[in-house]
């Protein structure tokens, strides 16, 4: 099934692996012109596909980095019809151990750069007639689980999507959040648990009524739907993609 996105110009921050990588794959199959950035240079080089996409190694937490990349992408693609904020992460332990710097870094790696990305992209989306922005948050934004700084940053992303949908909607721009549940990405956290702690992993799957974690492609389908005109009536929403997962992690307090 096609989402009718052929020719659209889309920027994906955090587009090298996992959910971001799956989103880029789907956008390319749709016939989109894609710009992506990621932190690791080797992953960016692999994602560049011999020039099929415009790709840069960018640490989105560095001041002006995501803004500069946005302008480069606009110049290369000739404008923007959509943006996806898919980078993210967290640092620090519990409330007694996490430092002020770790709280700040976690906020910037999720909410802060997302705000700067939309600020840099807003005028270009407006020039294209509005477009769509998707912030990839997490069920950790409303389902309690360690660590608090990560959940707080994701909750802020969800709130920001609703607020910016009102602010930017006057120009025809839609803004939505997507909240994945625990996603099985090769080589990442849950994949490592599956191979190294199979009994614990099997117990964790009971958090899902269907007995299996989310796949990156399942989240990517929802992101691409929100970028398309088929979701034209949806803005300011937070859409969970968690298969009714109960808790974000298997680790209690």
Automatic annotation (TrEMBL):
<dbReference type="Pfam" id="PF13561">
    <property type="entry name" value="adh_short_C2"/>
</dbReference>
<feature type="domain" description="Ketoreductase">
    <location>
        <begin position="8"/>
        <end position="193"/>
    </location>
</feature>
<dbReference type="InterPro" id="IPR002347">
    <property type="entry name" value="SDR_fam"/>
</dbReference>
<comment type="similarity">
    <text>Belongs to the short-chain dehydrogenases/reductases (SDR) family.</text>
</comment>
<dbReference type="InterPro" id="IPR057326">
    <property type="entry name" value="KR_dom"/>
</dbReference>
<keyword id="KW-0560">Oxidoreductase</keyword>
<protein>
    <submittedName>
        <fullName>3-oxoacyl-ACP reductase</fullName>
    </submittedName>
</protein>
<dbReference type="InterPro" id="IPR036291">
    <property type="entry name" value="NAD(P)-bd_dom_sf"/>
</dbReference>
<dbReference type="GO" id="GO:0016616">
    <property type="term" value="F:oxidoreductase activity, acting on the CH-OH group of donors, NAD or NADP as acceptor"/>
</dbReference>
